[in-house]
Amino acid sequence: MDFELMASMMSADYGSLEEEVKALEEGGIDSFHIDIMDGRYVPNFAMSLNDMKYIAGAASKPLDVHLMIEHPNNRIGLFLDRLRPGDTVYIHPEAEYHPSTTLQSIIDAGMIPGIAINPGTSVETVMEMLRIVKKVLVMSVNPGNAGQMFLPYVGKKITRLLAIKEDMDFEIYWDGACGADKIMEYGPKGVRGFVIGSKLLFSKGRPYGPTIGNIRNLVF
Predict the structure, then answer these.
(1) pLDDT score at 155
(2) Which residues contact 148 (CB under 8 A, 6 or more apart)?
(3) Dihedral, CA atoms, 190, 195, 198, 199, nearest 10 degrees?
(4) Residue 103 CB burial class (10 angstroms; 0-12, 13-18, ≥19)
(5) 167 — alpha (psi -120 to 50), left (phi > 0) or beta?
(6) Bridge partner list, 173
(7) How many C-beta neighbours within 10 Å does residue 38 have?
(8) Among 89, 122, 94, 125, which residue's Cα sits nearest to residue 104?
(9) Cα dihedral sign for 175, 2, 56, 84?
């Protein structure tokens, strides 16, 4: 089973960020997951616009930008101008009055449009947007902080999304509390990619290559 691994750069070593990016690429990471938080939509601040710009300049692999901000359409141009065609941008539908307008801006800029679904967001409330986006980032924890516990009822939501993804032409990605057990369970079921951070990838004292290789072997 082929699946993607996205490095949660919120957990990277910012004292040697360029070296981190190069080591992750050499180790076989598929993309760099960038968490942007404004302290309003979520009760925390994380990576900044300049962090994203720096990683975009240092990396050859795509960026996977998760906007946890209020009314992203008001400032979407600031992000799109610093990204490259083929990068992914996720928004939270609840954070925008007209999320389809923001998604169209992402499409027009040559980016891959995505939505992030909170644990408390039902599939029914985003059904029409599933016809627009190419990626659905399912949050298995409430957004805003790393290291939270998995919310078990999210598994049923993923099962529902798996049943309709082919017909509506989108892929499913996992974000939050991603351990080996989640990859072994949901990778074979059809989840396309997983955001991996401190639990599986960072602060392990091992080179990224063998670590990433071991994660890829989980579903074989």
Answers:
(1) 87
(2) 141, 142, 176, 177
(3) -10
(4) buried
(5) alpha
(6) 137, 193
(7) 17
(8) 89
(9) negative
Altogether, the residues listed in the chain come to a count of 220
**3-state DSSP of 143-167:** CCCCCCCCCCCHHHHHHHHHHHHHH
Res 146: pLDDT: 54
Tell me the pLDDT tens digit for each residue of 142-185.
875 555 566 778 889 999 999 999 999 999 999 987 889 999 99
Tokens found for residue 120 = 């408390």
Question: Cα separation of 212 and 186, whole Å?
Answer: 17
The pair of three-digit structure tokens given for residue 124, joined into one six-digit string: 């029914």
pLDDT the model gives residue 124? 95
Encoded tokens for 50: 């300049």
Burial of 168 (0-12, 13-18, 19+ CB in 10 A): middle
Neighbouring residues of 190: CB distance < 8 A, sequence distance ≥ 6: 162, 165, 172
- Quickly count: other Cβ atoms within 10 Å of residue 213's Cβ: 12
Mean pLDDT value across the chain: 92
Q: Which residues are designated catalytic?
A: 35, 175
Q: What are phi and psi of 191, to 5 degrees?
A: -70, 125
> What's the CA gap between 26 and 29, in Å, rounded?
8
pLDDT digits (tens, 9 = 90+) for 15-49: 999 999 999 999 999 999 999 999 888 888 889 99
